[in-house]
Amino acid sequence: MDSYGYIEVVGLVPAIAAADAALKAANVEVVGRENTGKAMIAVIIKGEIGTVRAAIDAAEAEVERIGKVVSTNVIARPDEALSALY
């Protein structure tokens, strides 16, 4: 079953770095990007729960080197209605 992972950062460059680190760290898929306001961008990934957690951890570590992480979250076994968002 797929899980969703979110990392919200300040700026486009950290968002791209987060997505790159997540994709390199685990077998996940980037399913979206949302501008959440005031230069904050959320990157949304999906995959198996263990790989999503590893990808979010890697993305967070990468962004902390170059920018600011606002928040992260992993949703395991999301309700099917959530898939309509992405």
Automatic annotation (TrEMBL):
Q: Check the record and name the Pfam families matching this protein.
A: BMC
Key words, A-Z? Bacterial microcompartment
The cellular location(s) given in this protein's UniProt record come to: Bacterial microcompartment
Q: Which PROSITE patterns match?
A: BMC_2
Q: Tell me the classification of the organism that encodes this protein.
A: Bacteria, Bacillati, Bacillota, Clostridia, Eubacteriales
InterPro entries noted in UniProt: BMC_dom, BMC_shell, CcmK-like_sf, CcmK/CsoS1_BMC
Q: Does the keyword DNA-binding apply?
A: no
GO cellular-component term (any): bacterial microcompartment
**Major place of localization?**
other
The identity of this protein, by name, is BMC domain-containing protein
In this chain the BMC domain maps to: 3-86
User: Which species is listed as the source?
Assistant: Brotocaccenecus cirricatena
Q: Does the keyword S-adenosyl-L-methionine apply?
A: no
SUPFAM superfamilies from the UniProt entry: CcmK-like
Give the protein family.
Answer: Belongs to the bacterial microcompartments protein family.
